[in-house]
Amino acid sequence: MASLNPKIENWQDRSVWIVGASSGIGWALAQALSLRGARVAVSARNADKLNAFVLSNPKSFAAPIDVQQSDSVQAASLAVSAHQGLDVVVYCAGHYLAQDAKAFDAQQLLLHQEVNYLGAVRVLSCVLPSLKAQGFGHVSLISSVAGYRGLPKSLAYGPTKAALTHLAECLYMDLHELGLGVSAVLPGFVSTPLTAQNTFEMPALISPEEAAIAMIKGYARGEFEIHFPKRFTRVLKLLRCLPYAWYFPLVARLTKGARS
Ligand SMILES: NC(=O)c1ccc[n+]([C@@H]2O[C@H](COP(=O)([O-])OP(=O)(O)OC[C@H]3O[C@@H](n4cnc5c(N)ncnc54)[C@H](OP(=O)(O)O)[C@@H]3O)[C@@H](O)[C@H]2O)c1
Fold first, then answer.
1. Residue 35, domain extent
2. 4 within some domain
3. 141 lines ligand 1 (CB under 6 A)
4. Residue 144 beta carbon below 6 angstroms from any ligand 1 atom
């Protein structure tokens, strides 16, 4: 099958900006790309962690950011562009708290929307003008298989990930013809601070380092949808195709342990 994006196979001296790189998947990806010779700019709120990363990765650059604040996003974007230019932007910032509609908490829904979706919009508004002008580059949004369809306790998180995947699809339709790559990354369960709150046994759990390797393979193949681990995500892809009359009762049964 022809690849949907320009393949990224060589990371040597490629300029990468990872937003949400102070822990978890973003941190592991930043490490893996630095090892492959990329110049990695790392962003998140925790400046101490970013500075620690820069200390052990001399070609890297720390640009603290709060994705909820437009001024902060603009300042970080300008700092990264001035320091190293931009080839690849990975939006990895995320917030997750299990939420159930029986205890509807609008503040939490709005916070998820702010960090997971609107933060990506703020970053895109800063980076797209220069990527379009240079006619090459890649934007990668870390979404989730939790955005495929409704899931229990996913009231605040799931809709933001559905929106993020949809956003990536629309970006692809418009930007591919300009020579830009766009990808949506859909991990299953990855062992990070974000999932540490889960009290149930997470199926097919992988490490952030394994997630980073899967992403790098996806970029090398020029994939639009980079999903992993396949033994888990393929099952969810099948569930996604079921009619609601089958989907709701089956998922209720499969997630009974996780909901109690
Ligand atoms: N772990 C999983 O199983 C899994 C599965 C599917 C998708 N994902 C997605 O993968 C991405 C990375 O998550 P993770 O699992 O690696 O969790 P994580 O270790 O908690 O990483 C989340 C990152 O987002 C940053 N962040 C949060 N709020 C921010 C804000 N307001 N401004 C700037 N940065 C902010 C955090 O840094 P600071 O706190 O320092 O700001 C951190 O670097 C998220 O989008 C998540 O939804 C994770």
1. 15-259
2. no
3. no
4. yes
